[in-house]
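Ticket 4471: requesting a sanity check on a complex prediction with S-adenosyl-L-homocysteine. Repro inputs:
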Amino acid sequence: MNHFPVFLALEGRRVLVAGGGDAAIAKLRLLLKTTARLTVVAEDPAPEIQSWAAEGRLALIPRAQEPGDALCCVIAYAAHEDAAKDAVSLRLSAADGALVNVVDDLANSQFITPAIVDRDPVTIAIGTEGAAPVLARKIKAELEERLPARLGLLARVGKGFRKMAEALPMGAARRRFWAAYYDHAGPRAADQGEEAVGEALASLLAEHLQADERPGHVDLVGAGPGDPELLTLKARKALHEADVVIHDRLVPPAILELARREATIIEAGKTGFGPSMAQADIDALIVEHGLNGAHVVRLKGGDPAVFGRLDEEIEALDRAGLSWAVIPGITAASASVAAIGQSLTKRGRNGAVRFLTGHDVKGFADQDWRALARPGEVAAIYMGKRAARWMQGRLMMHGAAPETPVTVVENASRPEQRIVAATLATLPDALNGVDGPALLLHGLAPRAAQAALADREIAL
Ligand code: SAH
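Returned structure tokens:
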């Protein structure tokens, strides 16, 4: 991020616009919505600017910019649409101590003006660091459509209640109140006008003040295989509402960024053989935050019900008397077969599929090798890298053909995704250099290159 977004307090501060044509007018339209004291310096100001000056909405200096014109200005715009004049303006305004924006000149600008969705006092600023103005406009148009015009009304009325809402305990209880207002009570009353919104807010507050202090709640959420777009809508909603997010190491930063900004994010890491936090400590951590009244999201890679120690956590929550819900996610097996264009089950090939773990708490995990060694069997092997050579031995001992296909999918669904097509015979070698989380698909080869390519294009 080269440009850090801030909302600048402009009340009573000076802002200078140098230039009198279309570019200046466009900036002034925006600036006139603010409480800043505007000055325009222009040799040949357009009639629109002159009439704003006549109405007293800005001060007009009808000449070329001179040293001192931008004194005490927080920001200044060079808006001549003329590179030479803008260069002079940039030099003069900067010398006067203002931050300068040269219109349509990212390289020479010290700040840039974002695309703005205005639902005063709710203001949404969209920036692409100059990379894609068209995209910014598209996002703006979408937001304009999605955000009802009455949002401003809700925010204004809400602002008047902030002090009163302090009667609610800070944190989760207060947040629940505001969420209920903005999600339900406010929009319902908004059609009947400002007064109705105020009344709805007052009775909602009374209701919340009476309600018993609600204990916390824990959502056990599947984060999917890593691509944020593979999160469920429920998972996103839970992340938006969470007070505390306790996640495992499989969850990438791009997904954690979707959590509410004020949420406390805690990594409770577990890796196959590396240093990890004991499950009992993780259980205790979740319970502790739940008992504190927090909305906890226990965020796990893939699906929490697949090799996710889900039952232990649920038992701990039950023992503590906390409410909980499971929000399923897309498991690594689903993402991995998607990556190679295959099905987990297929008519005439396999009517069953196994989800295996390469190792469990006791070490390499024993399985029904004889059954798995039969032709046509398919298994998704989780945590199988270390155990690969051992599993290879077991399977061959029970009669599996060395040429049985085994596909390694590393980092399924992530930008670093890698697919290694191997056979049972070549599997241990195929795993050389596979460092990320990887799933072994026993009995499946990637669909032929041509078809896989087509699938990919569709997927993209
Ligand atoms: N609950 C998770 C599995 C946890 S066990 C799920 O449903 O996916 C951890 C193992 O999952 C890893 O060792 C790896 O085998 C597999 N895994 C998780 N995410 C993966 C990904 N993006 N790509 C490939 N394998 C993955």
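Notes from triage: Residues 225-226, 250, 272, 300-303, 306-308, 331-332, 335-336, 382-383, 409, 411-414, 437-439 surround S-adenosyl-L-homocysteine (CB under 6 Å). Leaving this open until the requester confirms.
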